[in-house]
Amino acid sequence: MPTRDDGRHPLSILMGGPWGAIEAMAPTALFVIAYFGSNNNLAIAVGVALGAAGLLAIIKIRRGERPIRVLTGLLGVAIAALWAAYSDDPLGFFQVRVLANVLSALAFAISIFIRRPLIGVIVGPLLGTGMRWRSDPDLVRGYSRATWLWVLLSLVRAGIQVPLIAAGQLGWLGATPFLFYFLVALTVAGSWWVMQRTLPAGHPGIRHPQSGTSEPDR
Predict the structure, then answer these.
(1) Domain map of the chain by residue range?
(2) pTM of this structure
């Protein structure tokens, strides 16, 4: 993810571009492919997933991405892979992902109620506006409504994975990152639509926070 506004569509930065797609799909897909391809050797699958995550981290560092984003991506895969190894069950890789989605939904929801919707917290600095959007009731309202879509996305992802884990459908679980990336794209598009619908006529837009005194709603 870029560290400043690079002229792209304001909310498209949440997708991370081509590298965002690779990061979202490759470690999980490779974990499952390596597991089946090695005749169910969990150690090999864990090693492949960790290797893929490490390689992506190196690439992101060389591209100048923020350390927190690099560390978050690496830790997400590492924790899932190591839990699978500890539990001696490839499904453990996805059990961690379910927990992460539930915690993500909770974090997004809490951020709305404390008037710091996470979509604004993420997008504002990347657009060069910092947290100045918090002085604009219209943008706070728009970011809050858009953030609810990300709460829903996290819950939907968890809801898809839970029955697949219960049924032991490792192959289908390996395909979920492709579906989830499509859902992220829909959520990004939906977030922009919500922002556009929320901002009143005459507002200069997401890149130009305005000072205001009215109390924003959720």
Answers:
(1) 12-198
(2) 0.85
